[in-house]
C-alpha cells in the first residue's frame, strides 16, 4: 500500500526541500535506530549508524526509484552499515585478543562473573549468531518485517531468508535449553 504523503515528502526532498527530508527522518529514525541496535546492541553505535544511514540516504536520494518502500530501502542501508560495523568489531576484537595473548595479559573479566538477566543472555546468544542468521532473526522477529521485505533488505531470496531464520532460531533454542531447565528447578 502506497503512502501518498511519504511519496510527496520523498519527491520534495529530491527537489531539495530540507523540511521534507527532516520529516522523512522523523518518520523513520526510531525504526532505523531499532534495527541498528538489534544488530549492534550498543546505544551509541546504533545512534551513529542510524545517523550515518540518513547521511547516505540524503546523498543518494536521487537514486531512490521507488521499486520498494522507502522504509525497506532505509532498512537495507542500516542493515548493511550495521553488518559492516560488526565486521570491524570482529577484526578489532581479533587484534586485541592476539595482542593480549602476545603480551600474556590475564583476562580479569572472568574472575568476577555476576548473575545475568535472562533477557541479557538471550541478547548475547542472539549476537553470537552468524551475521546473516542474526540479521534475519532481528529483521523478521524483532522488527516484524515480512520474509519478502527481509529478502529485499538483505538482497537474497526468500528461501535463503527462511533457511537463515530456521537455522538461527534452532541454534538459539539449543543454546537456551538450560533456561528451561533452570525455570523447572
Explain what you see.
This protein is mainly α. It folds into two domains: 1-113, RNA polymerase sigma factor, region 2, helix turn helix motif (Rna Polymerase Sigma Factor, Chain: A); 116-185, Orthogonal Bundle (Arc Repressor Mutant, subunit A), CATH 1.10.10. The protein contains eight helices and no strands. Helix 4 (70-103) crosses helix 7. The protein is elongated, with a radius of gyration of 20 Å. Residues 98-115 have low confidence and may be disordered.
Number of distinct beta strands: 0
- Count of runs of 4 or more consecutive helical residues: 8
Which fold name is given in CATH as the topology of the largest domain? Rna Polymerase Sigma Factor, Chain: A
Q: In the CATH hierarchy, what is the superfamily of the largest domain?
A: RNA polymerase sigma factor, region 2, helix turn helix motif
Which percent range describes the beta-strand content?
A: under 5%
The biggest sheet amounts to: none
Shape: elongated
CATH architecture of the largest domain: Orthogonal Bundle
**Mind telling me the C-alpha Rg?**
20 Å
Taken together, the total number of domains comes to: 2
Helix content: over 70%
Order of helices and strands: HHHHHHHH
The secondary structure category is: mainly alpha
Give the end-to-end Cα distance, rounded to a whole number of Å.
49 Å
pLDDT < 50 stretches: 98-115
Mean pLDDT metric: 81
The CATH class of the largest domain turns out to be: Mainly Alpha
Amino acid at each position: 500500500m502506497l503512502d501518498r504523503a511519504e511519496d510527496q515528502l520523498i519527491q520534495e526532498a529530491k527537489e531539495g526541500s530540507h523540511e521534507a527530508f527532516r520529516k522523512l527522518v522523523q518518520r523513520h529514525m526510531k525504526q532505523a535506530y531499532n534495527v541498528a541496535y538489534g544488530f549492534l546492541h550498543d546505544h551509541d553505535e546504533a545512534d551513529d549508524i542510524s545517523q550515518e544511514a540518513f547521511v547516505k540516504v540524503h546523498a543518494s536520494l536521487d537514486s531512490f526509484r521507488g521499486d520498494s518502500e522507502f522504509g525497506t530501502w532505509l532498512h537495507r542501508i542500516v542493515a548493511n552499515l550495521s553488518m559492516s560495523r560488526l565486521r570491524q568489531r570482529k577484526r578489532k576484537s581479533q587484534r586485541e585478543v592476539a595482542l593480549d595473548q602476545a603480551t600474556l595479559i590475564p583476562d580479569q573479566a572472568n574472575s568476577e562473573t555476576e548473575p545475568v538477566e535472562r533477557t541479557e543472555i538471550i541478547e548475547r546468544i542472539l549476537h553470537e549468531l552468524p551475521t546473516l542468521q542474526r540479521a534475519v532473526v532481528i529483521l523478521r522477529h524483532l522488527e516484524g518485517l515480512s520474509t519478502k521485505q527481509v529478502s529485499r533488505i538483505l538482497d537474497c531470496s526468500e528461501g535463503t531468508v527462511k533457511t537463515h531464520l530456521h537455522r538461527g532460531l534452532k541454534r538459539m533454542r539449543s543454546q537456551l535449553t538450560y533456561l528451561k531447565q533452570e525455570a523447572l528447578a
